[in-house]
Amino acid sequence: MARVEKLSEADVTSRLPEVPGWEVTDGKLQRTFTFDNFVQAFGFMTRVALLAESMDHHPDWSNVYHRVTIGLNTHDVGGISQLDFELASKINHLMS
Amino acid sequence: MARVEKLSEADVTSRLPEVPGWEVTDGKLQRTFTFDNFVQAFGFMTRVALLAESMDHHPDWSNVYHRVTIGLNTHDVGGISQLDFELASKINHLMS
Question: Which residues fall in a coiled-coil region (chains A, B) (predicted)?
Answer without folding.
Answer: none
